[in-house]
Automatic annotation (TrEMBL):
CDD domains: ACAD. Residues 121-214 form the Acyl-CoA oxidase/dehydrogenase middle domain. Its cofactor is FAD. Keywords: FAD, Flavoprotein, Oxidoreductase. Belongs to the acyl-CoA dehydrogenase family. Residues 227-370 form the Acyl-CoA dehydrogenase/oxidase C-terminal domain. It holds the Pfam family Acyl-CoA_dh_N. This is Pimeloyl-CoA dehydrogenase small subunit. GO terms for molecular function: acyl-CoA dehydrogenase activity; flavin adenine dinucleotide binding. Residues 6-117 form the Acyl-CoA dehydrogenase/oxidase N-terminal domain.
Length: 378
């Protein structure tokens, strides 16, 4: 599928693909994964210099006012290199929450993040919430003129490296009520915040964050008290689309790696690529990727001007198709590479792991198919 890009979008694509080609071999990526933080601060500074950290944000916050398609172009290019820097956690998740909420916190923190001086993390997922965004057990009880936060968050991407955490907590209502969820901005080093970092299956870094009587003032509230769910839903819907764009880049590379491998690997004196049955498998992989890519760019274009309901439908549709395509491409790629495809020395295994993780983030294909069906039947 051809995507017609503006001159600016082509520059974004070229600069990102150039960085991936020059700096993101599998060997170089593995060294970053094995480092203390799991990514390169030098690369992060380069991201800031290139303007990527400010791409989706308003100009008044120091950003560039980029479109959804601009972001999809960048994420697709980063997906080709399996980039491990905290772009998604800091920009797409936490940064978007700040941008949507606005106010003094956004005015102070977004310029610092865009300049590469402050890392952010989005702490919303909980051990028992699964994919239900309004299932929030972490509490923020009124304490004088402020709040005391207690509870635990899980899978906080780059939570161990972040300077500030955007945390969802229940300020009223029952655990699964839609109302009563409030977003707070906390310093990671604040008293009572405990962070336990770990590596995810695809090599990225995440953390479990525990809050024990963490005291914050009313000025730590992001947006409107008790009305944080609408921001969370908007953040997650946008993230679903942009993660699908990242998956598109990863799928493209997985298809290319598989085609190249079957041309080199021989069986019965002939290249694997000469066998018609395997040609059919690779054609299916290519078609699945192209279909997913087309739907992703359509959804990315809708993000700039759509209602919450339209945004939710587009995000769910993308997650369904992206999940199905990523599963097909990943599994067929591994099968065509044979058992060695899952070894750390073969690049295809790294792409398979990342595609598997993207499929699970914020709801897998099965979950979003039910969600999409429910929305269309209303």
């Amino acid at each position: 599928m051809s995507v017609w890009l503006t001159d600016e979008q082509q520059l974004i694509k070229d600069s990102a693909e150039r960085l991936v080609q020059n700096d993101y071999t599998i060997e170089a990526r593995q060294k970053l994964i094995d480092s203390e933080e799991g990514f390169s601060r030098e690369n992060w500074a380069t991201f800031a210099e290139l303007g990527w950290l400010g791409l989706p944000f308003k100009e008044e916050h120091g950003g560039f006012g980029g479109t959804g398609v601009d972001m999809a172009v960048l994420m697709e290019a980063l997906g080709k290199g399996l980039v491990v820097e905290p772009f998604a956690s800091s920009v797409i998740l936490a940064g978007t929450a700040l941008d949507l909420a606005g106010g003094p916190l956004a005015e102070r923190l977004l310029p610092e993040m865009i300049a590469g001086e402050r890392l952010l993390a989005f702490a919303h997922s909980e051990p028992k919430s699964r994919f239900n965004l309004n299932d929030v057990a972490v509490t923020a009880a009124t304490d004088g003129d402020g709040f005391k936060i207690n509870g635990q968050k899980m899978l906080v991407y780059h939570g161990g490296s972040a300077d500030s955490l955007i945390v969802s907590a229940r300020t009223s209502g029952a655990q699964r009520d839609r109302d009563g969820i409030t977003l707070f901005v906390l310093d990671r080093a604040a008293e009572g915040v405990s962070v336990r970092g770990h590596q995810t299956v695809d090599g990225l870094r995440a953390a479990e964050v525990t809050f024990t009587d963490v005291r914050v003032g009313a000025d730590a509230i992001l947006g409107v008290k008790d009305k944080g769910l609408s921001i969370i839903e908007a953040v997650v819907d946008r993230a679903c689309v942009f993660f699908a764009a990242e998956a598109s880049g990863a799928m493209e590379q997985a298809v290319a790696l598989t085609v190249d491998y079957t041309k080199e690997r021989k069986q019965f004196g002939r290249p694997l690529s000469s066998f018609q049955a395997l040609q059919h498998k690779m054609a299916d992989m290519y078609s699945a990727h192209q279909f997913s890519r087309a739907l992703t760019y359509r959804a990315a274009a809708l993000l700039d001007d759509c209602s919450p309901a339209e945004r939710a439908e587009a995000a769910a549709a993308v997650k369904v198709k992206c999940g199905q395509s990523a599963k097909l491409v990943g599994e067929e790629a591994i099968q065509l590479h044979g058992g060695m495809g899952m070894t750390a020395d073969m690049p295809i295994g790294h792409y398979f792991k990342r595609l598997t993780m993207i499929n699970a983030l914020f709801g897998n294909a099965q979950y979003h198919l039910k969600r999409y069906t429910a929305m269309k039947s209303e």
